[in-house]
């Protein structure tokens, strides 16, 4: 019952007026970010990190703010899926399948309410999963030495490339591109500059926040410029109708929510899978077991509940490896990892021992945020619907400018701004070529740690390579990594989401 | 074809990266692994995956027409110019110009775009500088 005691302490941390206020702001902003097409959890959080950082918020409040945004965006994505048939972000893609037909049948309000409820169920139970699973994982992680950590990082890249992308070669290329960017700057161990071409600005390396905001947020602006989506969503009439679902409908969807929560959580915990896969698996599975009359795809409430419970539950699950091991399982958790690193906190087992207030305060804030989100999303949903009416021609310039403000705020360096623009263009080109961006971010974030652990292992064993495979734990991780990378190549055709094979808008926001 | 070009580019990048890695000067303190080995591993994987991409390209992406490419090029130029002029003319003026430009190119009427640009600039200035106390670039007029 240690865990529950820690959780109680966490609530003591989270229940201050400041933190509650930040959670409220975060949930509100997050829902808006999720609802707006073109802005999803990862680029939304990416834009807000530099801001939270420059405002000088301490670790716990900053994390509470950003994870509330993360959870909120997962809630918000469904709004435009249901009303406009445009997924607000990638995980909400599956919600369009039954959500929009419901809206067309005049049941938009019910669809929104059911999906809001499903989001709550998914996120709430996933947070409980996080409470109990993360400390167990920490116990395992304490056995890790440098060699095991190195293997773990390889595992993260391998499963990310294997499961979550369409082309393994491109995922591998993206990962090493990120790792390569991370090697720029003065080498931490010997103090020699690497790949800096005599440019003083590069001695410190490239700030990962610059890379993240450029790749995620600015590239989105370029995508919009390319298609000139000027008219935006505002032209279509949006009618919500009643927002209280009949009790019968709720009862019908409860089993679907339960099953999807479990699937979503598992998908979230697995490194590299993330919320998009969570919602996909949940929907397909639910369709297979309960679609007896062929109502799925024509506006079945269970088809709305399943993917929403799945993606919100996966969002909670993805926090498990991020907090316990320091290895994120999805794009957005990679961005949250960036937040932690920017605050000088290294996630992993030591975080649970040294800064339990941060971890448990965060988890408590997730519970609070969830309840706020439920409260906000049922009655206030028509307010968020109105936000959808902002045309992208006004929205996107604001997004670009806020990105600039955030990055400028960190360093006050115009050099960083130029680097960010370069990353933005690079992100656009890579998206056109269908190269996933998440491995790049992960590479930039983990490169330093990965190299450090490799070299530490080599120093301990005096340069003996075979020592990387010296323990059963390490061998297990390596095997898992190889299987995770190679297996999808073989069975991928049957297993991988078919819909995910057709990129929406050049691989829009990754979970 | 795009993928093949991209693969070749990746391979050249790998070659350049490895060559640069050989140029890293070693210092007198060193560990058995040294600062060069990890970059070599990265370069190798980069080269291998580039070759695979050249050999097994995906279907051709839909490239925009030349005019759209020009649009993106211009937007990039405006953003770089924004970064370079930021310290000289201050946050509000630069942001208003850049945001107006982007809004105009995204399809707003010029007058509406200008209004939107000014409102975005002033709005950000008020929220982030006056309310939240973030330091923004100061121009000759003090804002």
Summarize this structure briefly.
The complex is a heterodimer of chains A (511) and B (143). Chain A has 511 residues and is mostly helical.
Q: Main beta sheet of chain B: strand number and arrangement? A: none
> What count of domains describes the coordinates of chain B?
2
Structural class of chain B: mainly alpha
Number of distinct beta strands of chain B: 0
Shape of chain B: flat
- Topology order of chain A in helix (H) and strand (E) letters: HHHHHHHHEEHHHHHHHHHHHHH
Helix content of chain A: over 70%
Strand content of chain A: under 5%
Number of strands of chain A: 2
Q: For the largest sheet of chain A, list the strands in their spatial order.
A: 1-2
Structure annotation, total helices of chain A:
21
Structural class from helices and strands of chain A? mainly alpha
What do you see in this structure?
Chain B: Keywords: Membrane, Transmembrane, Transmembrane helix. The complex is a heterodimer of chains A (511) and B (143). Chain A has 511 residues and is mostly helical. Helix content of chain A is 72%, strand content 1%. Chain A has 21 helices and 2 strands. Chain A has a two-stranded antiparallel ribbon. In chain A, strand 1 and strand 2 form a beta hairpin. Chain A is globular. Chain B has 143 residues and is mostly helical. Chain B has helices at residues 2-22, 37-55, 66-89, 91-105, 110-131. The chains are: A mainly alpha (511), B mainly alpha (143). Chains A and B meet through helix 8, strand 2, helix 9, helix 18 and helix 19 of A and helix 1, helix 2, helix 3, helix 4 and helix 5 of B.
């Amino acid at each position: 019952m240690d865990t529950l005691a820690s959780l109680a302490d966490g609530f003591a941390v989270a229940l201050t007026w400041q933190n509650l206020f930040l959670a409220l702001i975060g949930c509100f902003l997050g829902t808006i970010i999720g609802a707006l097409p073109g802005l999803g959890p990862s680029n939304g959080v990416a834009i807000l990190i530099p801001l939270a950082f420059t405002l000088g918020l301490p670790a716990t409040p900053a994390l509470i703010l950003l994870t509330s945004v993360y959870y909120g965006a997962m809630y918000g994505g469904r709004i435009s899926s249901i009303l406009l048939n445009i997924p607000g972000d990638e995980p909400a893609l599956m919600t369009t399948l039954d959500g929009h037909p419901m809206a067309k049948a005049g049941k938009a309000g019910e669809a929104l309410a059911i999906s809001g409820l499903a989001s709550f169920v998914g996120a709430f139970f996933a947070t409980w999963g996080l409470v109990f699973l993360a400390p167990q994982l920490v116990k395992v992680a304490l056995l890790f030495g440098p060699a095991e950590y190195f293997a773990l990082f390889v595992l993260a890249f391998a499963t990310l490339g294997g499961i979550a992308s369409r082309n393994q070669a491109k995922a591998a290329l993206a990962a090493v591109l990120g790792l390569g960017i991370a090697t720029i700057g003065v080498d931490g161990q010997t103090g020699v500059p690497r790949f800096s071409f005599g440019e003083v600005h590069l001695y410190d390396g490239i700030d990962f926040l610059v890379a993240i905001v450029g790749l995620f947020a600015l590239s989105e602006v370029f995508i919009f410029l390319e298609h000139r989506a000027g008219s935006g969503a505002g032209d279509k009439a949006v009618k919500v109708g009643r927002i209280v679902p009949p009790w019968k409908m709720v009862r019908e969807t409860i089993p679907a929510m339960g099953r999807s929560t479990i699937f979503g959580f598992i998908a979230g915990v697995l490194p590299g899978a993330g919320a998009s896969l969570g919602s996909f698996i949940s929907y397909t599975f639910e369709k297979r077991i309960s679609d007896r009359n062929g109502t799925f795809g024509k506006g079945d409430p269970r088809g709305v509940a399943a993917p929403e419970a799945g993606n919100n539950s996966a969002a909670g699950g993805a926090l498990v490896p991020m907090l316990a091991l320091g290895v994120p399982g999805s794009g957005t958790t990679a961005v949250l990892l960036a937040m932690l690193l920017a605050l000088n906190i290294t996630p992993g087992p030591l975080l649970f021992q040294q800064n339990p207030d941060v971890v448990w305060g965060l988890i408590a804030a997730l519970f609070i945020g969830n309840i706020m989100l439920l409260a906000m999303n049922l009655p206030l949903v028509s307010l968020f619907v109105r936000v959808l009416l902002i045309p992208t021609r006004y929205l996107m310039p604001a997004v670009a400018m806020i990105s600039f403000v955030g990055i400028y705020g960190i360093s006050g360096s115009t050099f960083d701004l130029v680097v960010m623009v370069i990353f933005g263009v690079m992100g656009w080109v890579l998206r056109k070529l269908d190269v996933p961006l998440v491995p790049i971010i992960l590479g930039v974030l983990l490169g330093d740690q990965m190299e450090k652990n490799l070299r530490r292992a080599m120093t301990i064993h005096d340069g003996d390579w075979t020592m990387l495979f010296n323990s059963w734990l390490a061998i297990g991780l390596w095997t898992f990594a190889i299987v995770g990378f190679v297996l999808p190549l073989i069975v991928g055709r049957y297993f991988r989401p078919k819909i995910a094979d057709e990129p929406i808008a050049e691989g829009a926001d990754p979970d | 074809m795009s993928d093949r070009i991209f693969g070749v580019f990746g391979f050249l990048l790998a070659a350049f990266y490895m060559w640069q890695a050989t140029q890293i000067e070693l210092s007198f303190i060193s560990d058995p692994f040294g600062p060069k080995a990890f970059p070599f591993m990265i370069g190798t994987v980069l080269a291998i995956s580039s070759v695979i991409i050249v050999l097994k390209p995906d279907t051709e992406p839909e490239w925009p027409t030349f005019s759209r490419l020009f649009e993106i090029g211009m937007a990039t130029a405006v953003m770089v110019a924004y970064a370079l002029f930021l310290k000289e003319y201050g946050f509000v003026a630069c942001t208003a110009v850049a945001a107006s430009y982007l809004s105009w190119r995204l399809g707003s009427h010029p007058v509406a775009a200008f209004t939107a640009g000014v409102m975005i600039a002033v709005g950000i200035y008020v929220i982030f500088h006056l309310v939240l106390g973030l330091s923004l670039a100061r121009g000759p007029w003090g804002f």
